[in-house]
Amino acid sequence: MSSEKLTEGWVLALQLYGSAKTISFSDHKFTNGSSTSLTGGRERNTFVSREFGFRVSWPNGWMIDNKLNELYKRQFRFRDKIVIPIVVIPQSLYGGFRPSVTVAMDDSVGIDVNSYIENNILVSKNALVEIIKTIGVDLVSILQFHYLSLYGLSSEERIFQIQKVVLTNNKAYIVTASQIPESELKTNKRLRGDLDKIMTSFSIVGF
């Protein structure tokens, strides 16, 4: 990573990676089957799960597509025990690619965060990894990339993937933004903003 060129796209990827290093907690209650925050008001474009204990939101122009859950599980090489309750994708392509944000959950985790990453998360040798240990919650943020172009042609454009892994209460949450073309990071302010909003919206929920 240290030898990477300080291009505009690389700087913007680092900024997105930096903003993803957040974790929050929120309280919710359910009324007549609908989700409502304790601060009041109906929530739009928000997934709240009592079963999995998290919430995530997305802006207009994005949608849930849970037909892709198993595809991403194989792509990320997650083991069978890990489930992906939600996949959020934009309604249009960006540079021929379709970025996505997924949230995966693994329960009954009985090991430390370093061991969990080593055993369960595919990390390239050039990945930028930061581990933040706190009382009750450990957070790992990962920035990695590969060179990829449409139709398998050689390319110098990086395709970024950003992850944050949260270990808390014997559970692991893996939030992944993937298939992010460097050219779109440079030219598409809306995409950068949307990804930032989705990644930072993730929170662990208490009911």
Tell me about this structure.
Helix content is 22%, strand content 39%. It is of the alpha+beta class and 207 residues long. A seven-stranded antiparallel sheet has the order 5-6-7-11-10-9-8, sandwiched between helices. Strands 2-1-12-4-3 form a five-stranded mixed sheet. The longest helix has 13 residues, at 189-201. The chain is globular. Mean pLDDT is 86; it is low at 31-42.
How do the helices and strands line up, and which of them pair or pack?
Layout: H1 8-19, E1 24-31, E2 34-37, E3 46-49, E4 54-57, E5 62-64, H2 69-75, E6 83-90, E7 100-106, H3 113-120, E8 128-133, E9 137-147, E10 158-168, E11 171-181, H4 182-187, H5 189-201, E12 203-206
Parallel strand pairs: 1-12
Antiparallel strand pairs: 1-2, 3-4, 4-12, 5-6, 6-7, 7-11, 8-9, 9-10, 10-11
* Helical proportion, percent range: 10-25%
> Structural class of the secondary structure composition?
alpha+beta
Strand content: 35-45%
Unreliable stretches (pLDDT < 50, length at least 5) are 31-42
Give the total of beta strands. Answer: 12
How large is the radius of gyration? 17 Å
Q: Overall mean pLDDT score?
A: 86
Topology as a string of helices (H) and strands (E) = HEEEEEHEEHEEEEHHE
How far apart are the termini?
A: 41 Å
Major β-sheet profile: 7 strands, antiparallel
Total of helices: 5
Q: Tell me, what's the shape?
A: globular
Strands of the widest sheet, in order across it, are 5-6-7-11-10-9-8
